[in-house]
Amino acid sequence: MPAPVPTVAAESARRSAAVLSTLLGTLLLVLGLGIAPLLGAGTARAVEPEYARLSLTEITPSTVTSADGDTVRVRGRLTNTFDRPISEVRVRLQAGSALTDAVQLRTGLMASSAGFPAITALRTVSGTLDPGQSTDVDIEVPIAGPGGLQITDTGVYPLLVNVIGTPESVGVVSVADSRTLLPVLSLPADPGRASGFVDPVYEGADPRLGRDGSLAPDTSAPAALTMIWPLAAPPQLAPGGLGGRTEPVRLISDDLAASLRPEGRLGSQLESLSELTTGDRFDERVRSGLCLAIDPDLLVTVHGMTLGYLVSDDPVDPRAATSPGAGQEAARAWLGKLRKLAQELCVTALPFAQAGLDSLAVIGDDQLTATAVNGVADIVDALLGVTSLRGITIPAVGTLSQAGREVLVGQDRLMAAVASSAVAPAGRDEQGRYQSGPIALQTYAVPISAAIGAAGTGPVVPSIIPGWQQPSLRGESPLSRRQSAAAALAFPALTVPDEGAPAPIIGRSAMIMPPTYWAPTPDDAATLLGMADLLIASGTARPVGLAEMIEYLPEATEPTALVTPGDVDPLVAGGFPVSSAGAQEIRADLALTAQLQGALVGSRDTVTSPQTYVAPLQEDMLRAVTTPQSQTVATARELREMRVAGTTATLRRMVEAVALLDPGGRYTLASERSPLLLIVRNDLALPIRVRMDIQAPAALNVGDVGVQEIPPIGTRQIQIGTHASSSESATVQIAMVTSTGVPLSDPVTLEIYTNAYGKPLFWITVAAATVLVLLTARRLWHRFRGQSDPADEDRPEPDAEELRQASTPYEERLDRARHEHVEAAHPEDS
After folding, report:
1. Among 25, 631, 679, 785, which is 20 to 30 Å from 804 by CA?
2. Cα–Cα nearest to 561, from 399, 718, 414
3. Phi-psi region of 353 (alpha: psi -120 to 50; beta: other; left: phi over 0)
4. 3-class SS at 301?
5. Distance separating alpha carbons of residues 423 and 440, to the nearest angstrom
6. Comparing 215 with 24, which gets the higher pLDDT?
7. How many CB atoms within 10 Å of residue 147?
């Protein structure tokens, strides 16, 4: 469709506006201020059309120290994304004031140009940049002094790289920018500062200031640095699988295989961490302050992949078509590296599958809760061959509600790590430790988590950080995000509150808790570990291992209330807890799973134990209540419903796997006491105990066979004793249930026929016996009197041969018979 032709008036107005914009922009650039100061430093940046894109490639030094020069150099790549040329392209750096609150780590990057009052001179980049054309950007400015960034103290400073240009028909505008953070650990020599040197022996002198004007790090209150390194992934095991290697491992996708490879998200993390245990790149103390926090569900899944696995076409249907997975070797290699690494580093367990505490509270199943928070350490220890740290819970969301607190208390878990925005203490603790009822809490700053999570291949935003605290990362380069992450890690160590100023909730603790599913690249990981190394070496931070934190955390005395972080949806802050209806479904599946487990039989001769056999079904319920990270609530609900449906389908299949074989409807008993024969089929991998529930009329007494054990993958014939008191047909209904009361298959209805005649048959039998006795008595009477029995009078007399045979001994008759048999067989010999 052709573009509309502008009217003369409209074209004239557009040209007038362009000229005015050009004049105003030129005037503001000459003043070096821009219009933002009129709006105040806290004003958010305005949404402007995209003219170009700036990607930073180098910031030197990435952390300012006295050992570096007195300048900062920034390099990048600028690309014209506009549909017209951009002329007079120039660049300048702007710096804001040192940040004083962790929230400013994010909001400081969202401010307008007025939030960066220190402005350097413009440097020419290019005369004209055509559409789609790129050029290098390179600018170097003093850290302090005229024309520099005006940085005169240690701390973390927001840095704006601002590119100015004149797009055709637009005028002079900021065509692109990039925002990041610049940590300043110490400052090099400076004549201006040297003039104000006062010997530290005098009261009021700055002990950090050297005679040459250099400024040393502030080591007066080293931050307690504890860095948690989470290793986790969204649940990948397809629901409805049975354990003990009785069924192939099924995954809902093969995404985890790519993540485990050396270039993948989880693979690159292990590659980066291995540098802590090999070589001398990092101080040994860096390792002592770091702890791996591992989701046991990830270990269970990866271990299953090492045995060979399938990818299901329909995860809801446990019997759906599958295709072979491609990550078996990657899983073996990754798990082997992790086992080796775990021998050298601190290890602790996250809640299983990042199950939400609020969801566990709604479900109210003690065994499921115990598996989620107390049984996780045993899983990690068994699969990694280590002894992990126990006692502290790290909720997935970073919040703890009253219901969640009761869940932990019920499991005797009396320590947790939560976000500082989830507590509201009356006073402030120096180490950020607080007491909520019987639970001791260690706090950490979520803005730091957000800044660290923003680095890597896929920025991850903590769900409890409000939108107004989260800057747009669109167009920000990996280097700018990495730089901000490292500066955020350094913030607690470089920011010492002034005397009399309110201390932060986290105090002087620097517990670093990245988002659970963060994706740092090797460069990101090396930068973060390098920053921790620098802070410890400079004395601005001291490593505090998680074991030490756990040791002293129970000493927390400052009381605090538990709150929902401001401007955060309570549903999200609670980890998207399961609904009452959903909890009812889960409880029903858990109850049925427990009943089936109780009926199964395990021994040394069986392939597995009943507990191991059904454990994946219980774990599926924890995966169903996993805490959403980056998914929408709708997506999380779909995944939850999928997992519950898959588990329910398997339980139904298990119930149907044990059944009575219907003999055909009619059954004839040979006599009144003939047994009733039934055949039971068991397609499960374990023996199962069952009993019969039989409904029969009074005329047919059916015995009770008690509890019967049916062998696995086979059938068994069961004899049921009967006693019929009538020859009439009887309808018998036979149902089968497990020894724990679970109905199995459908009841069988039989029409029973018996050859039973009741009392007539009894009297006939009595009469026949009487006649037999009388006849026998008569014969004996005649023989006693020496008389022949009248019944023998018509019998012929025996001849001579019969008499001879009767008088011949048995042995002689036997020999004669053998001789006659031989003669008959060999007549020629005779």
Report:
1. 785
2. 399
3. left
4. helix
5. 12
6. 215
7. 10
Between helix 522-538 and helix 265-277 the angle, nearest 10°, is 30
CB 586 within 8 A of CB 664: no
Amino acid in the structure at residue 768? A
153: helix, strand or coil: coil
Confidence of residue 7 (pLDDT cuts 50, 70, 90): very low
**Structure tokens belonging to residue 750:** 């039989």
Residue partners of 507: CB distance under 8 A and separation at least 6? 428, 429, 430, 431, 432, 433
Spatial distance between the Cα atoms of 58 and 140, rounded to a whole number of angstroms: 11
The β-bridge relationship of strands 123-129 and 118-119 is: unpaired
The DSSP H or E segment spanning 190 is none
d(CA 408, CA 423): 17
- Give the whole-angstrom CA distance, residue 399 versus residue 417: 9
User: Left (φ > 0), alpha (ψ -120 to 50) or beta: where does 97 sit?
Assistant: beta
Please check whether residue 272 is in contact with residue 522, taking contact to mean a CB–CB distance below 8 angstroms.
yes
- Minimal CA–CA distance to 411: which of 344, 347, 366? 366
* Amino acid type, 480: S
Specify the 3-state DSSP secondary structure of 381.
helix
**Counting beta carbons within 10 angstroms of the beta carbon of residue 533, is it exposed (0 to 12), middle (13 to 18) or buried (19 or more)?**
middle
- Between CA 544 and CA 550, with CA 545 as vertex, the angle to 5 degrees is 100
Say if CB 151 and CB 215 are below 8 A apart: no
CA 761 to CA 755: how far, in whole Å? 11
For residue 123, what are the contacts with CB-CB under 8 A and spacing of at least 6? 90, 91, 92, 139
Residues near 589 by beta carbon (within 8 Å), at least 6 away in sequence: 617, 621, 644, 647, 648, 651
Contact present, 523 and 272 (Cβ < 8 Å): no
Name the nearest CA neighbour of 416 among 441, 452, 449.
441
Q: How confident is the model at residue 43 (pLDDT cuts 50, 70, 90)?
A: very low
Distance of alpha carbon 228 from alpha carbon 540, whole angstroms: 19
Which tokens is 568 given? 């955060």
Q: What is the residue type of 567?
A: D
> Counting Cβ atoms within 10 Å, is residue 810 exposed (0-12), middle (13-18) or buried (19+)?
exposed
Task: Report CA Rg, the chain.
Answer: 43
The two structure tokens encoding residue 753 = 């026929």
Rounded Cα–Cα distance for residues 495 and 445 (Å)? 13
What's 330's DSSP letter? Answer: H
For the chain, the maximum distance between any two Cα atoms, rounded to a whole number of angstroms, is 160
Helix (H, G, I), strand (E, B) or coil at 124: strand
Please, which contacts does 272-276 make with residues 24 or more away whose CB atoms are closer than 8 Å?
272/520, 272/522, 272/525, 272/526, 272/529, 273/229, 273/341, 273/345, 273/525, 274/337, 274/341, 275/526, 275/529, 276/344, 276/345, 276/529
How is residue 184 written in tokens?
A: 């300043």
Q: Is 206 exposed, middle or buried (0-12, 13-18, 19+ CB in 10 A)?
A: middle
Cross-strand pairs, 176? 163
| pTM, full prediction | 0.83
Cis, bond preceding 827 (omega within 30 deg of 0): no
| Tens-digit pLDDT profile for residues 448-505 | 999 999 999 889 999 999 999 999 888 899 999 999 999 999 999 999 887 777 889 9
Contact status, residue 516 vs residue 141, Cβ threshold 8 Å: no
Q: Are 704 and 696 in contact (CB under 8 A)?
A: no
In 10 A of CB 727, how many CB atoms?
15
Q: Under 8 Å CB-to-CB from 100, ≥6 apart: which residues?
A: 495, 497, 501
571's tokens: 């549903």
pLDDT one-digit tens code per residue, 140-193: 999 998 889 999 999 999 999 999 999 998 999 999 999 999 999 999 998 888
pLDDT digits (tens, 9 = 90+) for 729-775: 778 888 899 999 999 988 888 777 666 555 565 667 778 888 888 87
Q: How many helices (H) and strands (E) does the chain have?
A: 23, 32
